[in-house]
Design goal:
Distance between the termini: 38 Å
Order of helices and strands: HHH
Radius of gyration: 12 Å
Number of strands: 0
Structural class: mainly alpha
Number of helices: 3
Strand content: under 5%
């Protein structure tokens, strides 16, 4: 549970944010595919 304490410190912050934090806004890359 310590990893979740500081996810931004890890290089996977971008991946974790999309997988562990779906509340965050969708990336522009995914948005473009979803819109198309």
């Amino acid at each position: 549970m310590r990893r979740r304490a500081a996810p931004e410190r890890s290089p996977w912050s971008a991946v974790g944010a999309t997988v562990l934090y779906p509340q965050a806004p969708p990336q522009p890359e995914r948005d473009a595919e979803s819109t198309s």
